[in-house]
Please model this.
Amino acid sequence: MTSAPAAPAASDVQYISPVTGQRFAVDTPMWRDQGGSHLNLTLGHGLAPADIVGHERSLWRYASAIRVDAKSRISLGEGWTPLVARPWDGREVQVKLEYLAPTGSFKDRGTSVLFSYLRSVGVKHILEDSSGNAGASMAAYAAAAGMKARILAPASAPAGKISQMTAMGADVGLIPGDRQAVADMALREAEKIFYTSHNWQPFFIEGTKTLAFELWEQTGFRGPDAVVVPCGYGSNVLGLWIGFNELLARGQISRMPRIYAVQAAASAPFHAVWESGGDQWVPIKPSPTMADGIASVKPVRIREVMEAVRGSKGAVVAVSEDEILKSLRQCLGQGLFVEPTSASSGAALTRLISSGDIAAGETVAMVLTGSGLKATDKIASLVG
Ligand SMILES: *Cc1c(COP(=O)(O)O)cnc(C)c1O
Model:
C-alpha cells in the first residue's frame, strides 16, 4: 500500500493562486499560474520580540519570519532604517527614512529577499521592468550575487537611475512610451529570460513586509495608528498589510494600523478602483506626473491592495501635482532630501490632518521611499 504524501506543515511557504486557490511548491520558481494570474504566498507565522536578531542591523534581524533559505542570503545592509520624529503641519509625525537604503530606495527590502530566494532555487539570469528604482536595486543585488540582469525601463526614466543600472553591469533596454509599454515589452522577453518582476514576484513582498516589523519594533512593539505610504503597484502597502497581519495573528499588536495608499492623481488606477467601490480594474487616462515612481496604469494585485486599504480602515488618497510640489518643498525645507515621488506621502498627510482623518495624538508614520540624490536635475527644475 502506498501512503499519500504528508501534508505540508502550516509554516511551510507555498505559492498560492488567488484565482484558483491552487498551491505550488516554491522549489521551482514561477511568476504566474497556468491561467496567467499572479501568485501570492501562503501567510507567514510572524515573530515575537525574542525572535529578533538584535545585533543584525538590516531587515535580516527578522530572519525567523522571512521564508527563504538563510544559506542563500544576499544582503547589502538593507532595512533597519531610522524612524525620526519631525514636525509636519503643527503635528509631530514619525518619518520613516526608507530612502537611506543601499541603492537609495525601499526597493532593496524586496530585492534582497527575492534574490536570496532566486539564488536558493538556482536562477542566474533575471529580467525586470522598472520605472527606475527597482531596476537600480536589482542591478545592485544581481552584481552582489553574481547574476546577470536584463532591465527594461521607460526612455523617460531619470538619467541618474539609468546610469545606476548600467554602471553596475545590467543590460538595460530603454522603451519609448508609458510605464505600461515597458511592462508589455517585458512580458514578451519573459519567454526567454525568467521574469523576476518586483510587481509580480511574491517574494518581493516577503521582503517589504519587514517595514511593518520595523515600525512595530521602533514604536516600542506597539505599531503606529496609521501609516501613509506612496503607492504605485502596492508592494509597500501589501508588505505593511501582510506584516501587520502576521503580528496580529501572533498577538504582538492589538489592532491593525490604518494604511493610507497615496497615488498621484495624474495616474491613479487604485484611486479609480477605490472610488468605484469595487475591486476590479477601471480604465484610466494617465497623464505625466513628477511622482514617476508611482505612475502605474494597470497594477497587478488590485484586489489585494483594496483588501489592505479597506481591511485596515485606511483609504486611497490621490494628490495633485501642486500638492506634491508643496510637500516636496516642505520635505526639502526640513532637510529631508527625497525624490518627488516620496513627497506624495507628505501631500496626503497634509490632507488627512486637515480633514481630521488623522487625529491629534495619534502616532502616524510617513514613509519616504526614495532618495533625492538620483533626481537632482528634476528637483532643481521643480524647486529651483
Ligand atoms: C517603486 C516606488 C514606489 C512605489 O512602490 P510600489 O510598490 O509600486 O507601490 C514609491 N516610491 C518610490 C521612491 C519607488 O521607487
Remarks:
- Residues 89 and 188 are 47 Å apart (CA to CA).
- The pocket of pyridoxal-5'-phosphate is lined by residues 105, 107, 133-134, 230-236, 293-294, 339, 341-342, 369-370 (CB under 6 Å).
